[in-house]
Design brief:
The protein is built from 14 helices and nine strands. With 411 residues, the protein is of the alpha+beta class. Among the domains are: 114 residues, no CATH class; 111 residues, Roll (Chitinase A, domain 3). The strands form three sheets. It has a four-stranded antiparallel beta sheet with strand order 5-4-7-6, with helices on both faces. Strands 2-1-9 form a three-stranded antiparallel beta sheet. Helix 4 packs across helix 12. The relative contact order is 0.12.
């Protein structure tokens, strides 16, 4: 369900990460009391020597852009904003973090570069962004999602309320205040000014896109919706343990099939799957590719509200209740035309913005301290485009095998 709210920030080209504070715990050592063997005296014992915190590593310059110095700490801070929430609660050593910092150094530096260049560009004040401009862009985003998903605004607002605890209007008002939203609209208007051209997708373009993607994007296979109760089989469980768990799921099945039984309540009580909090509901899934095969086969063999016998998969023992069914369906062009036009229009606008950002990069004076030279992703792409393609046959004919090359075969 999280993807419902990605629409609010999908166009934020340069700052699409989630900012999160990383909590740090501090502890103070209690001063040691006097030794029991120390006799009482008029002079108080000397306090213990204070602990000296280790010196943090000295910060140093990582990159210079138009005279602006970016420090190693800037890279690490950006990395922690992006990756900190994912690493929280996991055991990751400092060596692993350093390795990831080194691996993503180029992309992180490029994000620092882009953000700074855009801020510089915006500070020139060549374009004015009004609240009406932001409202218009947010409305386009909402309309795109409503049209793509086939929702009404009321349905979308209900989903937002259930998942975010606020109304759609409140979420839009919050997003409107986000400086990244204003930055995006500024870039959009500036790109239109510097790279004029019609970005509105035509009906012909939309029809071409529909015909090309009809099967992959607009054809929905037969689907069922099911709930289940799972009793897990631990890895390496012996026959005796499996028999105990089988007896447990059989007892649960007896309860489930009793007159007046509430399947959702029993799933919440017994199921060892995360779906237990939703009464075992797994939402809709297709016959193939959605669930493991024994489970999918059993679910599709049921009628609505019918309950299966015990189904064994690699995860454990299941009791399945099929709750809904959808026939295969292909959306017509008329149903999706507006959504396609909106999507293609936004793609054209993003291409304009990308062209603007590329110009800012090309004009920037970028340097690195000695020993820290880094090829940024956009530089690598640019070099790849300018290099002529290599003819593999010609290359292999020109190259002579190394006479003393070590063998790959190990006997």
């Amino acid at each position: 369900m999280r993807r419902l709210f990605y629409v609010m920030t999908i166009v934020l080209l340069l700052s699409s990460y989630i900012c999160a504070q990383t909590e740090t715990a501090t502890s103070a050592a209690e001063p040691a009391g006097p030794s029991p063997a120390t006799p009482a005296a008029d002079v108080a014992p000397a306090p213990p020597a204070p602990e000296v915190a280790p010196e943090p590593p000295a910060d140093s310059v990582a990159m210079i852009v138009n005279g602006k110095e970016f420090m190693e700490s800037d890279i690490k801070n950006l990395f922690m904003k992006q990756m900190g929430p994912r690493m929280r609660g996991r055991s990751i050593s400092q060596a692993q973090i350093d390795n990831m910092l080194n691996m993503y150094r180029g992309p992180l530096l490029q994000e620092l570069l882009d953000t700074y260049l855009v801020e510089q560009f915006i500070n020139q004040g060549d374009v004015t962004v009004t609240d009406e401009d932001i409202d218009r862009q947010l409305d386009i985003l909402v309309q795109l999602e409503l049209t793509k998903q086939g929702w009404t605004r009321e349905e979308f607002s209900k989903m937002v309320q259930e998942n975010k605890g606020q109304s759609l209007d409140e979420l839009l008002a919050e997003t409107k205040k986000d400086p990244r939203m204003r930055q995006e609209v500024y870039l959009k208007k500036a790109a239109e000014k510097l790279h004029p051209g019609d970005t509105e997708a035509t009906e012909t373009e939309a029809k071409e896109y529909y015909d090309k993607n009809r099967e992959s994007r607009y054809s929905n296979p037969e689907m069922v919706r099911a709930s289940h109760i799972l009793i897990k089989i631990p890895e390496g469980a012996g026959e005796e343990r499996k028999a105990e768990l089988r007896k447990k799921i059989e007892d649960i099945l007896t309860e489930v099939k009793a007159e007046g039984a509430d399947f959702a309540a029993l799933a919440a009580k017994y199921s060892e799957c995360g779906s237990a909090t939703n009464g075992g509901d797994l939402n809709f899934f297709p016959r193939h590719g959605g669930m493991v095969e024994p489970f999918a086969e059993a679910a599709f063999a049921l009628q609505p509200d019918q309950i299966s016998d015990i189904v064994e998969t690699k995860f454990g023992y299941h009791i399945i209740k099929m709750t809904d069914h959808k026939d295969p369906y292909t959306k017509t062009f008329d149903e999706v035309e507006k959504a396609i036009q909106l999507e293609l229009t936004m793609q054209k606008q993003q291409q304009q913005i990308q062209a603007l950002v590329s110009e800012l990069r090309e004009k920037a004076v970028i340097s690195f301290p000695e020993g820290k030279e880094t090829t940024l992703p956009f530089q690598a792409q640019s070099r790849a485009k300018t290099q002529p393609p290599v003819d593999p046959e010609a290359a292999s004919a020109d190259e002579e095998p190394a006479k003393d090359a070590p063998s790959d075969n190990i006997e």
